[in-house]
Amino acid sequence: MNDRSSRSHTIFRVVIESREMMSESKEPDTIDGAVRVAHLNLVDLAGSERASQTGAFGQRLREGGHINKSLLALGSVIGKLSEGER
């Protein structure tokens, strides 16, 4: 087990929107209608741990169990997001 591990998950999502402006007007509120949207998801996961290999006990063992359970839930969420569902 890595002693410096934060033992947490992080998701950072970037959404970028690009809108086409009408060619004759450069005013930002005159949108031509074409909108492009891009999503970038950066995910940093805590490591999955096997209690038998880490030698953890007490609080560290419970944390490892919570990490493993949350990895399973997070996997389900990521699977649904990749299908376009929310």
TrEMBL record:
Assigned GO CC terms: cytoskeleton
Residues of the Kinesin motor domain: 1-86
Localization in the cell: Cytoplasm, Cytoskeleton
One annotated GO molecular function: ATP binding
Keywords attached to this entry: ATP-binding, Coiled coil, Cytoplasm, Cytoskeleton, Motor protein, Nucleotide-binding
PROSITE patterns in the record: KINESIN_MOTOR_1, KINESIN_MOTOR_2
Pfam families cross-referenced by the UniProt entry: Kinesin (PF00225)
GO biological process entries: microtubule-based movement
UniProt family annotation: Belongs to the TRAFAC class myosin-kinesin ATPase superfamily. Kinesin family.
Protein name: Centromere-associated protein E
Protein species of origin: Acropora cervicornis
